[in-house]
Design brief:
The complex is a heterodimer of chains A (248) and B (324).
Chain A lengths: L1 E5 L2 E3 L21 E3 L1 H17 L2 E8 L4 H10 L3 E6 L6 H15 L3 E5 L10 H9 L3 E11 L2 E8 L2 E8 L2 E5 L11 H7 L4 E4 L1 H4 L7 E7 L8 E3 L2 H10 L5
Parallel strand pairs in A: 1-4, 1-6, 4-5, 5-11, 6-10, 7-10
Antiparallel strand pairs in A: 2-3, 7-8, 8-9
Chain B lengths: L2 E5 L2 E2 L2 E2 L1 H17 L3 E7 L3 H7 L6 E6 L8 H14 L2 E7 L2 H14 L2 E6 L1 E4 L3 E7 L4 E7 L4 E5 L15 E3 L10 E8 L12 E5 L9 H10 L3 E4 L1 H5 L20 E5 L5 H4 L7 E6 L12 E4 L2 H14 L5
Parallel strand pairs in B: 1-4, 1-6, 4-5, 5-12, 6-11, 7-11, 14-15, 14-16, 16-17, 17-18
Antiparallel strand pairs in B: 2-3, 8-9, 9-10
The chains are: A alpha/beta (248), B alpha/beta (324).
The complex binds flavin-adenine dinucleotide and adenosine monophosphate.
Flavin-adenine dinucleotide sits at the interface of chains B and A.
Chain lengths: 248, 324
């Protein structure tokens, strides 16, 4: 089975972002970058599928040449080879999906496993857009995945509970938390990853115009909550909630 | 003329309130774009939901009541909504930022070649239609513009209040011609049964974290919630640890809520959690660690052992005749 999985290079999710004073973006000096958290789950699941069914795991990232670091991390976890679609352009999810659709046409994987959401841009679109462009079925927000007889059976986290959906392969799956526990790259894994194949493509190679359909005009900080105060006891809490906040 | 189409959501024929807030967003957008606000509702045995959404303030409801739509599949809903959007001349298509909307709307955007905005919190027109949306776990707000003729939006429904009930608007049964697909199947929906209000609708939420240490201990959080006729929420760590079901998760990657009153019990206040509840009117934090970051956003903080403070709070509220 050929499995294609995607990784995005994002700012460290535990870092507090700082904005540039002119509203054109975030401050990137001294910022750490990581693989998007949800993609760690996707890569892990791809490796587990391969361990079970045999085959190959191909990792794709779209971004600057720095994204090679995140691809190497996935290779060190156990993926087989990488493709970087190199561009310095500001990308919306739509451009990423159209680029990935071309990569999928070339690679013809049996299944595509992505993260459900980027933790920087918080868009939650790319997998669904890719499925639309390829006219593949989709199973988003996966917490479980079983593949048999050319179908994937996917447990999904949805409002109100959980649901199960079956999709015929090839299909797009997006990973939610609780799908698995991503492994750490081992030292031998890291050594091996250095020798694994990593190819570079460009949007021109793929014939895709990456001009944004959603243009960001201004970046700004949200209104901050003003700090409240500490109450000394449960009795005081009840008093302030009744008399001051009028919340109960 | 370009119109606006709201994709309404229901669960087994019962309209979800997020649909009403999405209509409120669409009415706001209509001030900026002109045009009519239409609703599309798909399902089977949905007359009740059709009647309810007809009083939401929309101009017209298009619905298809068919066994094909008895269960939700993005693969069948997408071509149907695309058809309704095209025949109704709608160029702005919006839905709630629920798991239903997040699954469906991007697929519609792909099929319409439309740029898509996730989690809109504001819409206006100043020489072009603009949207605001949060990102980086709510620590940044961007203003964005969509350059394609068709535009697709999911709406952060906590930011829009349902309009007062209006006289019913016209409703029209449509036949999109969409039939069952052979490459996707709905298998089951395992609903977490609850008498409590939905998290996204509740006026009061009592949320518990990893500090509660067990599913049984969530009982005291639930008891306080029930007294205040509220909903129960949880941090991701509490869900991951098996103390609470996934539907209770609040945060960047769970539900976004904005109740009048939010209790964070034994929750440290990671940015990913704050992203889901910072919009609450009044926040109370109960945590034994005075340094916990949750106190920086709380209106009232109580530094205490939750196992002692929460039962005491419930009992004293009862004694004071507050709550149910
Ligand atoms: C990609 C990604 C997405 C995420 N999405 C979410 C999300 O949507 N929602 C979310 O919540 N988190 C999310 N997280 C996780 C988040 O980073 C935190 O790990 C999580 O919120 C911590 O949960 P917690 O506060 O319950 O646990 P902890 O951080 O372990 O805090 C437990 C708290 O309980 C207190 N405590 C312990 N015992 C007691 C007691 N007896 N009485 C009173 N207080 C006590 C402690 O002082 C501590 O402050 C995400 C993380 C990532 C990487
Ligand atoms: N630049 C990118 N390169 C590779 N994968 C991406 C990129 N952007 C988004 N993705 C994938 O799409 C998922 C959802 O992203 P988003 O729609 O941006 O929230 C991510 O978890 C990734 O798996």
């Amino acid at each position: 089975m050929k499995i294609l999985t995607t990784v995005k290079r994002v700012t460290d999710p535990d870092m507090k972002v700082k904005l540039k004073s002119d509203g054109t973006g975030i401050v990137t000096d001294n910022v750490e970058y990581k693989m998007n958290s949800f993609d760690e789950y996707g890569v892990e699941e791809a490796i587990r599928l391969k361990d079970k069914h045999g085959g190959e795991v191909v990792v794709v990232s779209v971004g600057t040449s720095d994204s090679a670091t995140q691809i190497r991390t996935a290779l060190a976890m156990g993926a087989d080879r990488g493709i970087i679609v190199e561009t310095g352009a500001n990308l919306d999810s739509d451009a990423v999906a159209r680029l990935l659709a071309e990569v999928v046409q070339k690679e013809a994987p049996d299944i595509i496993i992505m993260g459900k959401q980027s933790v920087d841009s918080d868009r939650n679109q790319t997998g669904q857009l890719l499925a639309a462009y390829l006219d593949y079925p989709q199973a988003t927000f996966a917490f479980s995945l079983e593949v048999a007889d050319g179908w994937a059976s996917v447990g999904r986290e949805v409002d109100g509970g959980t649901s199960v959906k079956r999709v015929k392969l090839p299909a797009v799956i997006t990973a939610d938390l609780r799908l698995n526990e991503p492994r750490y790259a081992s030292l031998p894994g890291i050594m091996k990853a250095k020798k694994k194949q990593l190819d570079t493509l460009t949007p021109d190679d793929l014939g895709v115009d990456v001009t944004e359909r959603v243009k960001v005009l201004v970046y700004e900080a949200p209104d901050e909550r003003k700090a409240g105060r500490i109450v000394a006891s449960v009795d005081e809490l009840i008093t302030v909630l009744r008399n001051e906040a009028k919340a109960i | 003329m370009s119109n606006i189409l709201v994709v309404a959501e229901h669960q087994n024929g019962k309209l979800r309130k997020v649909s009403l807030a999405t209509v409120a967003f669409a009415k706001e957008a209509a001030k900026a774009t002109g045009g009519q606000v239409y609703v599309a509702l798909l399902g089977h045995n949905i007359s009740g939901a059709v009647a309810e959404i007809a009083t939401s303030g929309a101009d017209k409801v298009f619905f298809e009541d068919s066994p094909v739509f008895a269960t939700y599949l993005a693969e069948t809903y997408t071509p149907a909504i695309v058809k309704i959007a095209q025949t109704s001349g709608s160029t702005l298509i919006c839905g709630p930022s629920s798991t239903f909307g997040k699954d469906l709307l991007p697929r519609i955007a792909g099929k319409l070649n439309a740029g898509m905005v996730s989690d809109a919190i504001a819409v206006w027109n100043d020489g072009g239609l603009k949207f605001k949306r949060p990102l980086w776990a709510g620590n940044v707000i961007t203003t964005v513009e969509v350059t394609t003729p068709s535009k697709v939006v999911t709406v952060r429904t906590t930011e829009f209040e349902a309009l007062p009930e209006s006289a019913p608007c016209p409703t029209e049964a449509v036949a999109t011609g969409v039939t069952a697909v052979e490459n996707a199947q709905f298998v089951s929906f395992d609903q977490v049964k609850s008498e409590r209000p939905e998290l996204t609708d509740a006026a009061v939420i009592v949320a518990g974290g990893r500090g509660l240490k067990s599913a049984e201990n969530f009982g005291m959080v639930a008891e306080l919630a029930d007294l205040l006729r509220g909903a129960v929420g949880a941090s991701r760590a509490a869900v991951d640890s098996g103390y609470a079901p996934n539907v209770w998760q609040i945060g960047q990657t769970g539900k976004v809520v904005a109740p009048d009153l939010y209790f964070a019990v034994a929750i440290s206040g990671a940015i990913q959690h704050l992203a889901g509840m910072k919009g609450s009117k009044c926040i109370v934090a109960i945590n034994k660690d005075a340094e916990a970051p949750i106190f920086q956003v709380a209106d009232y903080g109580l530094v205490a052992d939750a196992f002692q403070a929460v039962p005491e709070l419930t009992q004293k509220l009862k004694a004071a005749g507050i709550g149910a």
